[in-house]
Specification:
The chain is an alpha+beta fold and 133 residues long. It is built from six helices and six strands. The chain has a six-stranded mixed β-sheet with strand order 1-2-6-5-4-3. The protein starts with a strand and ends with a helix.
Length: 133
């Protein structure tokens, strides 16, 4: 799985105002100021059927102020030092990780909850995706 650096200036919107972070979970607020880069996997582009949709979604998630999300930055698990998070918008589960190099890596997007659960339980697949970066 190849990577695609996402050229987006990482600014900590959480530092500006606390109202923007009402949907954010405390684990993400803790690591947010430490982020050094953003990577979108090819699989993430494929799940969104194009680069424009994938990049727009990544921008919304980094901004933390989009109220269209029913869940933002929900911590799921730790896989070998990578923190796995999930957002949910209009029934789509967006899975991403903060890896050991403090990069935000967008992994997958699922419309089907059971597929999302299977992916989350498959630590081997998550490790494989993160190791190819």
């Amino acid at each position: 799985m190849a990577e695609d650096e996402f050229n987006l200036k990482i600014k900590n919107s959480c530092a500006r105002t606390k109202e923007q972070c009402l949907n954010c979970h405390k684990q993400f607020i803790t690591v947010r100021p430490l982020l050094t880069g953003v990577i979108l996997t090819k699989r993430f582009f494929k799940d969104f059927k194009g680069k424009a949709n994938a990049e727009a979604t990544a921008s919304d998630i980094l901004d933390c102020s989009n109220v269209d999300y029913s869940e933002m930055h929900k911590f799921e698990k730790n896989v070998d030092g990578a923190l796995i998070f999930r957002d949910k918008k209009e029934g789509v589960h967006i899975v991403y990780a903060v890896d050991r190099q403090r990069r935000l890596v967008f992994l997958r997007a699922f419309r089907n909850y059971s597929e999302y659960e299977k992916f989350l339980e498959d630590k081997g697949e998550i490790r494989k995706m993160l190791s190819h970066l």
